[in-house]
């Protein structure tokens, strides 16, 4: 069974931008969202994946991902996925031996930037760079699935 162990954070400042090693654009859409799981299709450059993930909030979630033909992914996103799509640039930042994935959202979620770190095991210590802000791992609003249903631009506190 595949387990994703991940922590999510908001950003305190933009100092992380000086540490970007590379960036990748993603477009993804959701086919299904239930109380127990979500199913999405993600496209990046000339690759595409089908992803099934448990919907429970927290650091540990079941996740399964399979590469699929790009032409199929385009058709699924355009014809079957709910809108709005999740559009983002993922910036990869290495800090203290850990790779941070910093998602800078576009489209209906423009203005939202979330940093994520995936760990090899639960409870593994990691240092928090000075550019990290509040942890939002347990706040469902920051999960991509939730952002496709309730985009950041529609949040009342924005």
Automatic annotation (TrEMBL):
SUPFAM superfamilies per record: CYTH-like phosphatases (SSF55154)
Class in the EC hierarchy, top level: hydrolase
Single annotated GO MF: inorganic triphosphate phosphatase activity
Enzyme Commission (EC) number: 3.6.1.25
Positions annotated as active site in the UniProt record: 30
Residue span(s) of domain CYTH: 2-149
Gene3D superfamilies, sorted: Hypothetical Protein Pfu-838710-001
Record's keyword terms, sorted: Hydrolase
Residue stretches spanning the membrane: none
Keyword Hydrolase carried by entry: yes
PANTHER family the UniProt entry points to: SLR0698 PROTEIN
Name recorded for this polypeptide: Inorganic triphosphatase
Record organism: Candidatus Methylobacter favarea
């Amino acid at each position: 069974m595949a387990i994703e162990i991940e922590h999510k954070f908001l950003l305190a400042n933009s100092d992380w931008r000086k540490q970007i090693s590379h960036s990748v654009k993603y477009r993804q859409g959701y086919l299904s969202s239930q109380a127990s799981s979500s199913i999405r299709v993600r496209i990046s450059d000339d690759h595409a994946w089908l992803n099934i993930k448990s919907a429970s909030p927290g650091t540990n979630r079941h996740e399964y991902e399979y590469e699929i033909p790009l032409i199929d992914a385009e058709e699924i996103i355009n014809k079957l996925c709910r809108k709005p799509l999740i559009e983002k640039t993922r910036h990869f930042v290495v800090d203290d031996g850990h790779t941070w994935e910093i998602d800078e959202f576009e489209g209906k979620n423009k203005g939202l930037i979330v940093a994520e770190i995936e760990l090899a095991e639960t409870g593994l210590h990691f240092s928090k760079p000075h550019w990290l802000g509040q942890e939002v791992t347990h706040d469902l609003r920051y999960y991509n699935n939730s952002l496709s249903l309730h985009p950041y631009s529609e949040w009342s506190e924005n």
